[in-house]
Amino acid sequence: MRKPFIIFYFLMIYAVAELFWWGILLIRAKPSSVGMISGELAVFLFIILVGAYYLHKSINKERELHKRQKNFLLSVTHELKSPLASIKLFLQTIQKRDLDREQRINFIDKCLQDIERLDDLVENMLIATKIDNQTYTFPKEKFNLSLLVDSVVNRLQVNKCDGREQTINAEIEPQVEITGDKFAMTSVVTNLIENAVKYSPPCEAVSVKLFRKDNEVHFTVADNGIGIADDEKAHIFDKFYRVGNEDTRNTKGTGLGLFIVKQVLDKHEASIHIRDNRPKGSVFEVVFG
Hints:
single chain, alpha+beta, Heat Shock Protein 90, 2 domains, two-stranded antiparallel sheet, 7 helices, elongated
């Protein structure tokens, strides 16, 4: 991407130099018109500089998107390879070793967890593609959001963590119903809770709340993780964007989760806000009007 910038800067320098040269020639030819020529020169120079600024901004944006897409492909490759390798290892162990019933059940449970992880990844990619191509219709129906959140929390709950329970603290008001796309809303709830767990230190608790307030439905997910810098909060819902430095990041992910969350909530006329948690971490709050 460096070559286009070199060509771009060369053309800009050449255009400005030519503009000044023609201005000098015109002033020499008509010294009495120096004011008019200088004014027109200034206008042309302003137009060129403004155009150059927006063109440079557009090229930078394309370069950043290209970089994110490249990182996305690398992330997807890793996200697919890791659970597949795990499933293969567990199945080979079951096949080659004489395990007792409890060990087999344990290995099968771990395989199912990895399959669910792959299923979430595939669903995210499918819905993101459909949203991007504007082919997803968001079919809406009335459904019980309380049951949906409870189901996702139970699925994502980590049973054991360094000898103690990993807790997703859930406070779910019963019988909270909304009208919307149940499949897409499952993706929203899953992505928000998964992100909270993913970006938290091992065994840190995550808080999930669902409640009614002032004729509105509030869904919040709070973590005690790494937090999000103020200058990154404006970009976290961009496609392929991931928090932190790409070269030093250890957290898994594709950069599609929060993009899907924002797009789905916009289609449901719901809002999402992010604020700092105390003493550390982030709080995502979704409000359905």
